[in-house]
Amino acid sequence: xxxxxxxxxRGKVTAKSxxxxxxxxxxxxxxxxxxxxxxxxxxxxxVQKDDWVEIKRSGNFFKSICLVEPPTGEPMVMPEDPFEGxxxxxxxxxxxxxxxEMARSHIATDREQSIQRQVALxxxxxxxxxxxxxxxxxxxxxxxxxxxxxxxxxQFRDALNETE
Length: 164
Description:
- The protein is an alpha+beta fold.
- It folds into 2 domains: about 5-70, CATH 2.40.50; about 80-85 and about 100-130 and about 145-164, no CATH class.
- It has 2 helices and 5 strands, in the order E-E-E-E-E-H-H.
- Strands 1-2-3-5-4 form a 5-stranded mixed beta barrel.
- It starts with 6 loop residues before the first strand and ends with a helix.
- The model has no long low-confidence stretch (mean pLDDT about 75).
């Protein structure tokens, strides 16, 4: 029978018994391992119900346990406003305000340009492969020339960036 691979789990202790713990979101009890299988850190004596812990779990047993700080609830990345810079209402000091060309967020613009570059590259590769045509009988296909594919890609990219 193959051995279970240890798994690091972080969570809140919802119940504690003399033999193990039950963690938030879990229905089963996780028992602590025998002393000869334990690893550091081992902070079992300090763990109480509602503490946040990190355990190294192997099967139904945990090999190590340590107290950790509860999550802060703050996002790890500050969200950027994709509509930043777009004016939605006229300034209050102008009477017949006519909206000028609205500025777009750099996030939306960068994403669109990235998608266009990906589509142009895909089209260039497909076109280069299609232009090879079928290989004559008894011969081998040659390699697709990367410089040729890049030249086609640049033509597609330039065409996408043209303005009328």
